[in-house]
Structures are given as structure tokens and as C-alpha cells.
Amino acid sequence: MKYSQKMWQAIDERLCLSSFSYSIPKNGNNLGYILGGITLFSFIILFTTGIYLALLYNPEILEANSSVLLMSAGFIGFIRGIHYWAAQAVFVTVILHMARIYITGSYKKPREFNWLIGVALFAITVGFLFSGTILKWDQEALEAFEHNIEIAKLLGGIGAWFAAAFTEVFHILHRMYIIHITVLPFFFILLFFEHAFLIKKLGISVWPANGERVQQEATLPFTTHVKKIIIFGFILLGVLAVLSAVSPPPLGPEPIEGIEVTKPPWMFMALYAIENILGLSSLFYVSVLFFALLAAVPFVDMRPERDPRKRKLMIAALIIVMALFIALVLMAALTAPKAHIG
User: Fold this and answer.
1) What is the rounded CA–CA span in Å between residue 253 and residue 219?
2) Which pLDDT does position 210 carry in this prediction?
């Protein structure tokens, strides 16, 4: 027995790491089926770089923007760039991951609850992106924050955390910082472990083929799946490093209250276009409706059929939603900034 094998056997005997492994179907190593793992790798990059940046960030209202400015040069700026671009990667990969699950009908019985956990993780991801863009505390961040406060008013007592009267000791920016570095990571980790546990117990779904009959393909060891995720993860890290070097994250000047002259990051452009049409309160109602529809997917499409060729109505719905999202982003990008507060 090789020395490395002996080492692994000794470690596994004490930590029982092999209990986390399971066999996966042959299609489990296709790119579409490792998108969830790539998303997790992106989150690991985010958490790692985020811990480093948190040590240097100052959430004081008068110091926040300048502390980010100090983190925008040299090696620290390079790390901030990786953090910034990793956030973009997470948003893209989580959408592609959910789209693959939707197309292959992998949310169907007995995986309905895991789909709901995935929807919750997507909501937390959006929360990470929104709170993260506010922490840089430039003009765009202030305007996004003012939108957040206005929407919180619609929630009444539930939105008290975001109300200025909640506490006079710390500015509301402190609360957003706390949400970003403690509250959201706590719920993310909690839900992720349940998500991973259900994947292990229920297995990775095989590719739907030949109508109702699902081909039982040969299985592969879990280690091959992990190795492929790690390979693609490090390729992604290399791409993020290049993007960080050639296109550093933007940072605007100190914010000025009473004006509204910016647009949100591209991930929120669709909501910005809707706000232009329906008004500020639509941000809340459209967001709630969107996540409610996502959560309802397994209960609307309850037939056992998973072949996308025989689920034309559901596939058409996905195409319409994606086309609408792209159209709204383009619409927002091509229009001049508009004022919505007050």
C-alpha cells in the first residue's frame, strides 16, 4: 500500500470522511451537473477573500468609502477584484445550475424540498450581492440603500431592522455590514449542509432519456466528481484573477444625499427597468412574486415525466422568463438614470 493511501486510511479511520462520498451517475460529471459544485467553489473564494477584506473594512459612515478606496490598490486591490468578480460568477453559475435542474426536471419527486432549499439559497445569494454592493458606500450604494429603506417601510414592523429609528448607536450601514458578514453566511451554511445532505441521500438525478424510461447508467465514484469540480474551480479562479488584474471593480466618490443619478449593477438592472415602469414599490412585490413562482415549480409540474421534449410548456415558460430578463436589462442599460425616491 502506498504511503498516501496509508495516510488517507489513517485520516479516514478517525474522521470518517468516506461517509460523505457516494456513487454518482455517469452524467454527473457533465458540465451541467457540476455547476452546483462550481457555485460552491465560487462561494469558497468569496468567503476566503471576504474574511481578508473584512479585516480592513471600516463600516463607520464617514470612513466606509475611504477604507474601500485604500483596499483598491496593490495586492489588496487584487484580492478585492477577485472578490468582486467571484460575486458575478456566483450569480451566473447559480442561475445556470437552477436552469439545468429545471430543464431536466430534477426538482420532481422526491426532490421537491431540495428545490425549495435551492430557491432559499438563491435568495440568500441575492442578499449577499445587494448588501455587498452597499458596503462600498459610494453614490450608487447610497441610492441602493435608500431604495432598501423605502421598501422596508412597506414591511412595517418586519422592516424595523432597516429603519433609522431602530438604534441611534450605530448607523444603518453597520447593520448591513452585520447582515453581510454574519447573518447571511449563517443561513447559507445551515441551508447548504441540508442541501448537500439531501443530494447524498437522494443521489444526483440521471439524465432523462427515452420518455418515461430513465436509463440506469453506470455509476462513477464520488472522487471523480470532486476532482472535476476542483479542476473547473481553479480554472474559474484563474479567470477571476485575470479579470481582477485587467478590470478592477468600480468605486464611485463619497455619496451625496438628495440626488439620484446612478444605475444598479447589471444583476439588478431588470428590477431597475421594472421600477421605471411600475414605481418603487414594485421592487418588493415583483421580487416576492418571482420567488413565489420559483418555489411553486415542483407543485405546478407534478407529473413524473422529466424529458424536456415532453414538457414543452414548462420549457417555454423558462425561455420567456430568460428573454424577459435580458430585455429588461437591455432596456435599463439604454435608458438614462431616473429618480424614484420621494
Assistant:
1) 55
2) 46
Please say whether the beta carbons of 280 and 150 come within 8 A.
yes
Read off the pLDDT of each residue in 6-24 and give the average, rounded to a whole number. 73
Cis before 110 (ω within 30): yes
Query: In the block, which residue shows the cell 477573500?
Result: 49
pLDDT, tens digit (0-9, with 9 covering 90-100), for 22-41: 778 878 788 889 999 999 99
Locate 203 and state its grid cell: 443521489
Is pLDDT above 80 for 170?
no
C-alpha angle 104-108-114 in degrees, rounded to nearest 5: 100
Helix (H, G, I), strand (E, B) or coil at 25: strand
Chain centroid, CA 29 distance in Å: 22
Q: Measure the CA–CA gap between 102 and 215, rounded to whole angstroms.
A: 19
Q: Which of 254, 284, 267, 269 has its CA nearest to residue 141?
A: 254
Residues 6+ apart with CB under 8 A from 118: 98, 101, 195
Task: Please state whether 267 falls in left (phi above 0), alpha (psi between -120 and 50) or beta.
Answer: alpha
Domains of the chain as residue ranges with CATH: 27-258 (1.20.810.10)
Q: Is it the case that residue 199 has pLDDT exceeding 50? A: yes
Give 3-state DSSP helix, strand, coil % of the chain, rounded to 5. 70, 0, 25
> Which phi-psi region, left, alpha or beta, contains residue 220 (left: φ > 0; alpha: ψ -120 to 50)?
beta
